[in-house]
Amino acid sequence: xxxxxKKIQEIVNVFExxxxxxxxxxIAVYKxxxxxxxxxxxQITYGRSQTTEFGNxxxxxxxxxxxxxxxxxxxxxxxxxxxxxxxxxxxxxxxxLLKEAANNDPVMRTAQDEFFDRYYYxxxxxxxxxxxxxxxxxxxxxxxxxxxxxxIFNFLRKRFSEYPPVxxxxxxxxxxxxxxxxxxxxxxxxxxxxxxxxxxxxxLLTQIESNNWGLSAEINTNGVAIS
Length: 227
What we know:
By secondary structure, this protein is mainly alpha-helical. Helix content is 52%, strand content 9%. The chain starts with a helix and ends with a strand.
C-alpha cells in the first residue's frame, strides 16, 4: 500500500493543534524548555505542527526571511535572540509578529509547510525506510515521535526486546512494543506536561489493536474525525 503522507500529517496536526490542516498561527508556552538549575524553563511553541523556541524555531524564521516575507526585516532583529536565554515568551512584539505573519502572509504558511517537511517528516521517513518498515501506521508512529520528541530515543528501544525489520525483527511486533513503551514512559514522566500527552500514544495503540496498519479506516482523535 502506498504511503498516505497527507493523512499521516493530518493526524499529527490534530495531535498538536486540534485541526487537520494545523494552526499556522498557533502559539503556546510550555514549561518544557532547557533545564536551568535542574528545572525546565518556559518556551514558546509555534506553528502548524508546533516547533519550539529552543529547538528549531530559529530555522523556521531563517527560512521565512530567505523567502523575503512581508515581516522578514522585523524578524531579522530577533534571529540572534531565538533559542537563547532568556526566552522571548514575554516579548509581545515577537509574539505578534509570529501571529501576523501566519495570518497575513502566505509566505509564512509556505515556509512552515516546507520546514515541517524538511526537518521532521523527511528525517522520519528516512529513519522508517532505513530500519526496514513498510506500513503507514509505522510511519505515523515514527513521524509522531520526531514531531513530539525529536526522534526515536535509544533508551526507550532498550526497554523492549523486538528488533526492527532491518535486523530481522517483525515490524508489527516492534511498533506495538515501542508504542507501549513510549506510552508508559510518557504516563510516568516527571514532567506533568508530558503525562498529559498520552492521548497520542493511546490513539496509536487503538489503531494497532484495530489492525489499521494501512490507515484506511477513519481515525478519531481529540474530537476530530480523519478519513
